[in-house]
Amino acid sequence: METKTVLVVDDEPDLVDTIKFGLERAGYEVLTAYNGFEALGVARAEEPDVIILDVMLPKKNGYEVSRLIRDEQVNGSIQKPLKIIILTARRPESEKSAEFYQDWARADEYLYKPFEMDELIALVEKCVKQ
Predict the structure, then answer these.
(1) For the chain, which end, N or C, has fewer CB atoms within 10 Å of the first or last residue's CB respectively?
(2) Domains and CATH numbers, the chain
(3) Measuring CA to CA, how many Å separate 126 from each of 17, 40, 119, 123?
């Protein structure tokens, strides 16, 4: 079976290292980025299967990065069908607000910090099977 690739994007290096460790133990190849521009560059160059994307990022926030990646999939500059998991500590004020952000960013899944590693790995597995 082909190894699936996951791009982990967060501006907290310790969190990136922790997620990377957990995903590698689960059998994934892991790429990393620490800001929005870097995330776009890696996504364009590597076309990972799944992107785990923090919202609060320097240079370009996660919602904007997600939306730009979706636009590039539509126009064909990113060829691969990839899944996006938004990771955030900010809980929206309401369910309606959460739906708005998810729809606007065109993300596949949402996960709120703090989270359990098993929960994140299960979401990644769900994404790669779709």
Answers:
(1) N
(2) 5-129 (3.40.50.2300)
(3) 22, 23, 11, 5
